Amino acid sequence: MSQFFGSLGRGFRGKKPEKTKPSPLPSASGNSGNGGASGNGGNGGGGYNPPSGNLMPGSPSGQRITQKPLFLCKPFVTSQLVKGSFSTIVVLPRYVDQGEWLALNLFEFFDMLNKFYGVVQEFCTPQACPSMSAGPGLDYSWLDANKKPLRLPATTYIEYVLQWISNRINDESIFPTKANPSTTTAVNAPSSSVSSSPAGAAGTAGQTWIGKEGGFPPNFYVTCKAIYKQMFRVFAHIYHTHFAKIVHMSLEAHFNSFFAHFIHFARAFELLERRDIEPLRPLIDSFEEQGLFKDNERSREQ
């Protein structure tokens, strides 16, 4: 897997766009782990409100556009670094804790997404992207401290999201970097964590959850899902708004391969809901037809 990410990194040459200083994030009252359309906050860390997925009234992206997006046109839709399925680099390796595998991949996906956003950041201005559009009919909004949806320029929204994710992956109570015996004892988890996770993902005293053996807390899996959802939204904006720039820099094969890997991993570990991927469903369906998500004997033997 590290070789694959390394091949992606080699595509980023030349001077990187300068990072702008992130604006202060909206403060939240209480825990940010809210459910529903607010986007789920990940149950812990930071104390910031997550973005929501509501279409804002009067949104310019709400207008119907019949032209096929560039990323669905040939040859770009079939441009890949990897020929064949991603199964061998997605499947959980033998003797590796699932929590450790989720954390490792999440860190690497987040790091690579930061790099790709850095490539298009200079073009994602408040004038060019006045809202966080994810295609015709969908703008993501941010919830303020009073749970009021705010329409933010895409660059501000993405900076908030990246900082929001960074706060969580650097939170020792969610992603511990040292073994902590207390985290492996039975701990009561929120009822929402139990109902929204696969079998064994979370539980009450005496039960197990994903990542328990690796020292991760009961809300670890729910947090991973929340982070994954927000990363997908950044993908959706880049594809729908900045893919021409990706093509201009000859990075479409890198970006498509990265996204296909991201989606295949999400499928394997149930990190995204069906409704979450709607903005890019045609692209995902195309990748499916190309066999990028096909299982194989080698991956099943690991």
Q: What does this protein look like?
A:
- By secondary structure, this protein is mainly alpha-helical.
- Residues 1-51, 53-65, 182-204 and 297-302 have low confidence and may be disordered.
- The protein starts with a helix and ends with a helix.
- A hairpin with a 5-residue loop joins strand 3 and strand 4 (149-150).
- The protein has helices at residues 2-9, 87-90, 98-120, 154-169, 191-196, 220-248, 252-268, 281-289, 297-301, and strands at residues 51-52, 132-133, 139-143, 149-150.
- The protein is built from nine helices and four strands, in the order αβααβββαααααα.
- It has one domain (26-301): Butyryl-CoA Dehydrogenase, subunit A, domain 3, CATH 1.20.140.
- Strands 1, 2, 3 and 4 form a four-stranded antiparallel β-sheet that branches.
Provide key terms for this protein.
globular; about 300 residues; about 5% strand; disordered N terminus; single chain
CATH C-level class? Mainly Alpha
Q: What is the first-to-last residue Cα distance?
A: 14 Å
Q: Given the helix and strand composition, which structural class is it?
A: mainly alpha
Percent helix, as a range, is 25-40%
Strand content: under 5%
Task: Please outline what is shown here.
This protein is mostly helical. The protein contains 9 helices and 4 strands; from the N terminus they run H-E-H-H-E-E-E-H-H-H-H-H-H. It has helices spanning 2-9, 87-90, 98-120, 154-169, 191-196, 220-248, 252-268, 281-289, 297-301; strands spanning 51-52, 132-133, 139-143, 149-150.
Please outline the helices and strands.
Blueprint: H1 2-9, E1 51-52, H2 87-90, H3 98-120, E2 132-133, E3 139-143, E4 149-150, H4 154-169, H5 191-196, H6 220-248, H7 252-268, H8 281-289, H9 297-301
Antiparallel strand pairs: 1-3, 2-3, 3-4
